[in-house]
Specification:
about 40% helix; 4-stranded antiparallel sheet; single chain
């Protein structure tokens, strides 16, 4: 995993400067703001400077389930990078949020122009996704694994766990 504390720190200085100048703006989001909705077009992403955001998953017939809470220096949103470019989760500010918001189309254009910037950005996003998948696996095993008292098939759970290790 990158030693950078956030996406901007992981980028080469010249590319970072162009990204901030051409594709970013600072935003303030009050408590309760729905930042994006599951199933809608993903065309922005954010680096949280302060505050907290909950990621949630729509469950038919029930209230949305909170999947993860993100805070300072964390990347919010990566669905913009991969077709079909729609949000797979929803997001809401649970504390006032200050963030740097990026226009995904402008970022992609800059990455196409600057291979070094593109490699660094894609690497950071991929490492972030992989780390979150590992964290999700750990939470799922804590809830449903053999030690949880659940009677699910242990061999099947081991196979699922191995799939995540390979990611």
């Amino acid at each position: 995993m990158s030693t950078a504390k956030n996406l901007l720190d992981a980028l080469p200085p010249e590319g970072r400067a162009r990204l901030l100048d051409q594709a970013a703006r600072v935003v303030s989001l009050p408590v309760g703001t729905r930042i994006f909705e599951e199933g809608r077009k993903a065309d922005h992403f954010w680096i949280i400077r302060s505050g907290q955001v909950e990621l949630d998953l729509h469950v038919p017939g029930r209230r949305a389930v909170v999947i993860e809470t993100l805070g300072r220096d964390e990347l919010l949103g990566w669905s913009w990078l991969f077709p079909p470019r729609i949000w797979h989760l929803g997001a809401a500010a649970i504390y006032p949020v200050e963030a740097v918001e990026f226009d995904a189309a402008a970022v992609c254009a800059l990455c196409d122009e600057d291979a070094e910037l593109g490699r660094a950005l894609y690497r950071y996003v991929a490492e972030t996704v992989a780390a979150r998948l590992r964290e999700t696996r750990t939470r799922l095993l804590a809830l449903y694994g053999p030690q949880s008292g659940n009677r699910a098939d242990t061999a099947h759970e081991t196979d699922i766990g191995q799939d995540f290790v390979d990611i």
